[in-house]
Design a protein that fits this description.
Layout lengths: L1 H22 L17 H28 L3 H17 L2 E2 L5 E2 L4 H8 L1 H19 L7 H25 L4 H27 L6 H37 L1 H11 L1
Antiparallel strand pairs: 1-2
C-alpha cells in the first residue's frame, strides 16, 4: 500500500505541474497566504478566535471517523498530502504576489468540512514553519479562508450537485474549483477589512479581487480537473476505504 501512496503523490506533482505550465509561465513571486505580520494585530486575533471553534469541532469529527474505521487514517493522510502539495505551489499573479491552488476540495468531499478544517490548519501551520508560506500571526486568517470557508463551500457545492443529478465527476470538479475561488474571495474580504483606506471597503475589496482574478480563475479550473483525476485514482485503488468512509458518514 505504501508503494501506491508514493506513486499517487508522484502523479499529483506531475499532473499539476503540466497544468501549471499550460496556465501560466512561472517566475519568482511572494506567497498569497497572508504573510507573517501583514495583518493588524486586532484582525489577526479576530480571525484566530473565529477559526478556533471549527478546528475543535473538526478534531471530534476526525476522531469519530477514525475510531469507527482505523483504516481511514491512510486516506485522511492522502487528503492532507494532496492539500499540502497543491497549496505550497506558488503561481505568479499580475501584481508581483502569487496565487496557488488549495487542494481542499478532495478531503472535504471525502471526510466533510469539519475534518478538512483540521487538515487545512495543520497544512498551513507546517507551511508557515517549514516553507515561510503564510505566517503564525496570520494563521487564523489563512485558516478561516482556506480551511473553513473552502471546505464548507466544497461540501455544500458537492451536495447540491448530487441533488441536482450531476455526475460524480462534475460534482467534484465544481466543488474543488468553486471552493478555490471562495477561498480567495474570503482572503480578499479579509484584506479589504484590514486595509479599507480612504476610498472605502467596496473599492478596496474590488481591488483585492481584481488582483488575483487573472490567475485564480484558470487555476481553479485546473485544480478542479486534477481533483477529479485524483478521486478517480482513489476510486480505482482504494475501493474498500471509500466504501468504509461512505458507510461511516452514512
Amino acid at each position: 500500500m505504501g508503494g501506491i501512496v508514493v506513486h499517487f503523490l508522484k502523479r499529483i506533482l506531475l499532473t499539476f505541474l503540466i497544468l501549471v505550465i499550460i496556465v501560466v509561465l512561472p517566475k519568482p513571486a511572494a506567497a498569497m497566504h497572508i504573510m507573517e505580520g501583514f495583518l493588524p494585530i486586532k484582525w489577526a486575533i479576530f480571525w484566530t478566535i473565529t477559526s478556533l471553534p471549527f478546528i475543535i469541532l473538526g478534531f471530534f469529527s476526525i476522531s469519530k471517523s477514525v475510531n469507527k474505521n482505523p483504516e481511514l487514517k491512510l486516506l485522511l493522510g492522502v487528503s492532507g498530502a494532496f492539500a499540502f502539495v497543491l497549496s505550497a505551489l506558488k503561481i505568479p499573479s499580475v501584481t508581483g504576489s502569487s496565487s496557488h491552488p488549495t487542494g481542499i476540495g478532495l478531503g472535504a468531499v471525502l471526510f466533510g468540512p469539519l475534518a478538512m478544517g483540521v487538515i487545512g490548519f495543520i497544512v498551513l501551520l507546517f507551511q508557515a514553519l517549514l516553507l515561510a508560506h503564510g505566517g503564525l500571526t496570520t494563521l487564523g486568517a489563512n485558516t478561516f479562508s482556506m480551511a473553513v470557508v473552502g471546505p464548507f463551500a466544497a461540501y455544500g457545492i458537492y451536495s447540491l450537485s448530487k441533488k441536482a443529478g450531476f455526475s460524480q465527476g462534475i460534482g467534484i470538479f465544481l466543488a474543488a474549483s468553486l471552493a478555490n475561488i471562495m477561498t480567495y474571495i474570503t482572503t480578499s474580504f479579509q484584506l479589504a477589512l484590514a486595509f479599507t483606506g480612504p476610498t472605502g471597503f467596496l473599492v478596496s475589496l474590488g481591488k483585492f479581487l481584481g488582483i488575483f482574478a487573472f490567475t485564480q480563475i484558470p487555476l481553479a479550473i485546473s485544480e478542479g480537473m486534477l481533483t477529479v483525476v485524483i478521486y478517480n485514482f482513489l476510486a480505482q485503488y482504494s475501493k474498500n476505504e471509500l466504501s468504509q468512509l461512505t458507510n461511516t458518514r452514512g
